[in-house]
Amino acid sequence: MGTMDNTQPGTMPTGIISLDSVLKGGFPAGSFVLLIGEIGAGNTDFAYTSVLSLLEIQQNGYPTDSFRNTVLPDKICYMSLTRNWEDVHDEISRCFPEDLCAISDRIEFKDFSDEYFSKSSIPTGWINDSPVSFNSLKEMKYEKDLINGMVVYLDENAPNSAIVIDSITALAEYCASPSNSTEWSDVISFFRGLQRVAKKWNGMVYALLTTDIVDKQQQEQIADCADGVLIFEWDDFGASKRQRVMHVKKFRGLLPQLEMANLVKFETSVTTDYGFAISKVKQVGWHA
User: What is the pTM of this model?
Assistant: First the structure.
């Protein structure tokens, strides 16, 4: 693990070298970062690439000397509300080279599907392979509190860790169901508390949100809770060409220096060789 100096205190690399070089090492440790993306525009690829690259750095060391004064997470945790590990691992295996796919087995995966679907009409057999027993039927009488379960898991695992929450979209849909007692205000309180306690954890929390699923006001409420908000979009360049772009809508402590360098918006690429990367930095600049 790297040590920190006085010139770059509390910095945690994303592991995405093309981005960390622009950020002078990475994000401030303790950041709650919201990744908002149009479908297929790269927010999930960003999260996958970041955590897999961090695991690779843990295993093989830093690829350059530039970021040795940053601090690596002790572990990587992936929290999924609706997907199981086999599904996530299969997606990683299709999108990344074999060596990174092998490293993914070191991700600590937490499946919250039982809590998410506990009050729905979905059959238990669709969620897990556990046989139905008397005890399991008895447990189904009581609502499993999703947010409380997430809080307990984070308290136990988030300190000095990199966390992925997949996804805020599913959490918003969960609150919209009349069968669940969780209110939207509970979700906002959860994120405001998360932003605050993340500073004590001194790690990094990514939360995925799909654009235009929740209404604009709700999306802005969530964004207001986060330290950093990265937007992933498709830009059209003529009738036949589309380009992924990422821009930094907000980042406490980083946005002013990025704006001064005209580097708030970036062209990006996603390939099976290296995952997510900044393909070009300066040709898409910030404008007031």
Answer: 0.87
